[in-house]
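Final paragraph of the annual report: two paired records, presented back to back.
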Amino acid sequence: MTTDLPTYGDLMLPVVLAIQALGGSGTGREISASVVETEGFSEELLEVTYDGRDKSVLLDRLDWARSYCKLGGVLESPRRGLFLISDLGQEIAAQPADEATERLREVDRKVRRDRHRKKTSTAGSQVNDDTVDAPDDDEEWRETIVSRLHRLSPDAFEHFVLFLLRSKGMELKRVGGSGDEGVDGIGTAPITSVLSTTVAVQAKRYEPSKTVGRETVALFQSDATAAGAEHGVLITTARFSAPARKAAMGRHPTIDLIDGDRLADLCLEEEIGISRRPVVDEEFFDRFEKLR
């Protein structure tokens, strides 16, 4: 099945066209979701994973396609996980598909030549080149924490999700229990310092490679309505299909979807189970030497 999947090189043009269609910028998740929808990749292809890992091979290759586009100057990344199309990228996107593909192959070859020279020039040193070239928005820590959350029991995962949302200011009561297909938590979420909204929560501890479909979202919307909620939050260790995301915003109550990657980001924001490491930018201080 892996041989049926496109290479990261094959995905570079779809990535460029996706970010252009998104308005010239987008997060890694938005770009990947757009490519999956536009290219019509099946759920079967998305669920192909590496041996011993929960990471989807196709999504991993999309990460590398974005990374190579960035390294080749086709995309810019003003901050981790956020991408902008560059002048070069717009130029390539405007060309016919065969010409654009050839331009991106040239970009790919140049990036790989530069990597090879870098590795050669640093041979024998303690520089770890893999850390330089790894996709910016696909850090190993995300995969590690999602995998760890998936190893929790269903009950434990529900407890964790309620704890995480409480850390964001929600006041929640647990309802249902393990195996319950309805609402797992009900309570209030702050909108402003004086306003709040009733919110229903559902936690789905699925295989990280699994895709949560529209039916799951629609069922939760019905359960949230029955519980009297004005909004819903559906959290999973897996990912959501494009129809699921559309359904979440297509009827009342609207549902905020939090997939495995976003769940990991929330853990980092609140430093729950993971700690931020301060990094000193020594070059930042050089500018003060130039002041007169």
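The closing record of the year follows.
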Amino acid sequence: MIYFDNAATTYPKPDCVKKAVGSFIEDRCGNPGRGGHIMAMKAAETVYETRKKLGLFFGVSDPSLVCFSGGCTEALNTAIFGVLRRGDKVITSNTEHNSVRRPLIAAGCETLTFDALASDGEILSQVEKLIKYGAKALVCTCASNVFPLCLPIKELGKLCKENGVLFIADGAQAAGHFDIDVIRDNIDILCVPAHKGLYGIPGCGAMIFSPMYDTERHRPLLYGGSGVNSREADMPLYPPEKFEAGTLPTVAIAALSAGLDFVNGVGIPEISKRERAISGRILNRLKNNENVVFYNGKPGSLLCLNIKGVPSEKTAKILNEYGVCARAGLHCSPDAHKMTAPDGAVRISFSYFNTIEEADAFCDVIELIS
């Protein structure tokens, strides 16, 4: 099997992640903050250490500013509904995932859209102009889940800071692939998943606040037990407990801790280098095939393509019959696919564990069926 669906979730998981899951279930699977006994305390220790590790990974030294969630989508909903109101003008891109697009629509925000496929300079120029329309926030992806592109996050953050605009960043496809620093990049709230480029397992994400952000004005999305201030009718005033109602996904948090160790050990530059080598090989092998169309085709952590005259779902089905796992369709980003075929495209996405040999085998199948 060739697994080229890492943008959905990475596979295989590193051995250290598998071991961490088993170890946590075996000897520390208590409920953190819900007791003073040894199992609850061990679980709480794992959560705290992961909180600290994840914050430092993204440039935040205060562990309390790292708030765990059930996934990146939940984190984005908490970020968006917690501070934005109906009628607020919000800048976003034309390649956003539904985890950004739908909450903005549901919140009743007025969206001002820039073209994420433009050059970095053009993107900054567009956003600067849109800010003048009275934008309250910029909410956008760091890297597209459809096209191999990474937005100029550092420059966008600087622009937001200079103009008093809130910056909420969706790191779903960037975390673990590209260097992100919340403070350096002037991000107010960064939302990330555990199970993609950080090599954890599904069921966990996080919302990471900048130390400069006023969390007291931010409303929680979920209300319920927090393990502290139980007599009070309101949620706690401060993070992380303010945004962590209910039992945390502790097993997934333990896996995330091990995944971070793996990424830190290998290094983002090496991971990115390997992914770009694989995607570059595929682009080079198929560049002369007139029946294959790449969208914004350049080396990156993913590629989107179609075979002319063949629906993307049919291509993915054929690939599966040859042992290649790929995703077809709209990838939960309908606006992005206005620039591809109407039914979407076939996405192949890579991780540290993919190889050049797998890239060649994929190309052999495409050449056979195109």
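The chain has a mean pLDDT of 96. This concludes the annual technical report; the extension proposal builds directly on these records.
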